[in-house]
Amino acid sequence: MSSRSFLESTLQSFAKALSRALLAERAAHERGLLQQLDPRVRLVGILGLVVAVTLCRRLEAVVALFAAAIGLALLSKINLWSLCKRVWIVVLGFTGLIALPALFLTPGEEWKTLPWLHWTVTNPGLHTALLLVLRVETAATLTTILVLCTPWTHILKALRALRVSPEIVAMLAMTHRYAFLLIETANQMFESRQSRMVGILSPKDRRRVAARTAGVLLSKSVELSQEVYLAMISRGFQGEIRLLSEFRMTARDYAGLVVFLASGAAVAWWGR
Amino acid sequence: MHIPDGYLSPSTCAVLYACAASGWYAALRRVKRSLGSRTIPLISVFAAFSFVVMLFNVPLPGGTTGHAVGVAVAAIVLGPSAAILAISIALAIQALFFGDGGITTFGANCFNMAVIGSLVAYGVYRPCAANSDVRSRRRVWSAAIAGYVAINAAALATAVEFGIQPALFHDAAGTPLYAPYPLRIAIPAMMVGHLTVAGLAEAVITAGMVSYLQHADLGLLRAESVPLLQAEFATNAVRESRRIWWVVALLLLATPLGVLATGTAWGEWSASDLSDPRVRAEIATASRSQELPSATPRGLERMSTVWTAPFPGYAPKFVKSPAFGYLLSALFGVGLLIAGSLAIAAIAKRRDRAETQT
């Protein structure tokens, strides 16, 4: 890998993280089905469905939940093509590759033999591979739908409803905010390095650039944490975290919660 | 190494959530005690830093690149407790915001990367670096080894979690319901990539950062610029040890409960057990009716006479009561361990004193 492509691939990673965040912000402001429900209902409901799909042992039940996830995405005005690019293809590539050998390695009754290679696909192997891929696809689709339909600040406040400690919620909120600041800083450091680079760096120098950039970022992070702490103290922070919650549950939210939990429980029961 | 939802059974996820939660609880208590109100900004910014480091493409020897986790550098600079929290928060952002790693498997990912990774990195770095100068090359090598070992320990834990799935969670026909490969496939498959690429990426980034800090920001390696972290490194040993002594005393008192257990522990049979028809029947039942050898294996018979324990079966010959025998054996065992530890500590102290004088 050349030095330029190493810098470019790191810059691409940063750009991808930023574009994902922008996409999530845009989708969260659509007027779809999920966006109209209370964030706490969205969080609890979708987590319930993720747990249900993990509990399912029958292929038909997982397929039903996958179909429900697609329906939920359509009703929430999420672009299916972006879901396909962001989740389905990635999961299929990764989990599919992991599940592929299971088709041939799992002992059991023969299903088909591949022409030329003469490898035998077994029925249990096919069932195991399909179950794994579909379960991972469904869970990843549901999690992505939740993230795309809910602004990050709302997810954090909803976490309080699950009795997550305020300190942890505050840490998540600050981490999210400063992650983007540090991505921007690292991006600038790599861009300035790239703009001043004429020749090709040796492999050793490439490693040095990566490690030193990370080192500078570490020093800046520690300085930043001191500054943030002083800023918090100056605003009267005494070590206690209080979070405001302006959410109000309506009849529609309660109905949504019941539908989510009942359907999750029903599918988990059917697929047990 | 980020396990997505669906690879692990719900019960495995629940157990690993409990393991990770105990790590978070202990880490949060220690960090709060040492950092107080600084905990939130310091851990948050460090978690953000770890998150960004995970996006770095680290060039490796051989022309390939890999992603680091940043767990070793967090453990070296912040100490293991703060590192556990920072890496866990970074993993939470990855799972919740970027879908990297599952929600049901979040506990497993934190246990593997944050808890095991931080503890192993710190546990390897401290003895490797020992009392060497903060500017020495030894520190750089220690950091590299700590990063390499920590990532591979986390990968091994992940592989074991995958590998036990088919044995524990399968349908009536034996078809695996979650991760489909047994330990003999999962461990080599997982470790090949980590021993060659991911471990190397972590070693390169950790060593490079420690080397950079030696030249540019030495205080971070001495935990001076994060002053309150000093307390993390110098814990209140007296209070900690007093608590441990209480636990040891309670466990000692509970040892007679051991006599309530019936039967023989699987795999811990003596030569005489294999010739006793009643014990043979018990062994066969416990081994799913696996047929036992007709006679005691010759090797086992020969080796069983090499060493005779002073308290065979935790029952000294001069004691009539089995419960008292258990208690006496426990006291003897604990006493031996304490004497051994004190001897090692005394030797280490003498060596430290000799090094300081030179």
Question: Helices and strands in order, then pairings?
Answer:
The complex is a heterodimer of chains A (272) and B (358).
Chain A: H1 3-28, H2 39-55, H3 59-75, H4 80-105, E1 110-113, E2 120-122, H5 123-149, H6 152-161, H7 166-195, H8 203-234, H9 251-270
Antiparallel strand pairs in A: 1-2
Helix pairs in contact in A: 1-7, 2-5, 2-6, 2-9, 3-5, 4-5, 6-7, 7-8
Chain B: H1 10-35, H2 39-53, E1 58-59, E2 65-66, H3 71-78, H4 80-98, H5 106-129, H6 137-163, H7 165-168, H8 183-216, H9 218-221, H10 230-233, H11 237-254, H12 277-286, H13 298-303, H14 322-357
Antiparallel strand pairs in B: 1-2
Helix pairs in contact in B: 1-4, 1-5, 2-4, 3-4, 3-5, 3-6, 4-5, 5-6, 6-8
Explain what you see.
The complex is a heterodimer of chains A (272) and B (358). Chain A is 75% helix and 3% strand. Chain A is mostly helical. A two-stranded antiparallel sheet of chain A has the order 1-2. In chain A, helix 1 packs across helix 7, helix 2 runs antiparallel to helix 5 and helix 7 packs across helix 8. The model of chain A has no long low-confidence stretch (mean pLDDT 82). With 358 residues, chain B is an all-alpha fold. Helix content of chain B is 66%, strand content 1%. In chain B, strands 1-2 form a two-stranded antiparallel sheet. About 4% of the residues of chain B have low confidence. At the A-B interface, helix 1, helix 2, helix 4, helix 5 and helix 7 of A face helix 1, helix 2, strand 1, helix 4 and helix 8 of B.
Strand order of the largest sheet of chain A: 1-2
Task: Using the alpha-carbon principal axes, give the shape of chain A.
Answer: flat
Sheet/helix structural class of chain B: mainly alpha
Average pLDDT of chain B, to the nearest integer? 78
Give helix % range of chain A. over 70%
DSSP, total strands of chain B: 2
H/E element sequence of chain A: HHHHEEHHHHH
**What can be said about the biggest beta sheet of chain B?**
2 strands, antiparallel
- How many DSSP-defined strands of chain A? 2
Per the CATH scheme, the topology name of the domain at 10-235 in chain B is: Arp2/3 complex 21 kDa subunit ARPC3
- The amount of helix of chain B comes to 55-70%
Span between termini of chain B: 46 Å
- Using only C-alpha atoms, the radius of gyration of chain B works out to 25 Å
Q: Using only CA atoms, what is the Rg of chain A?
A: 23 Å
First-residue to last-residue Cα separation of chain A:
48 Å
Principal-axis shape of chain B equals globular
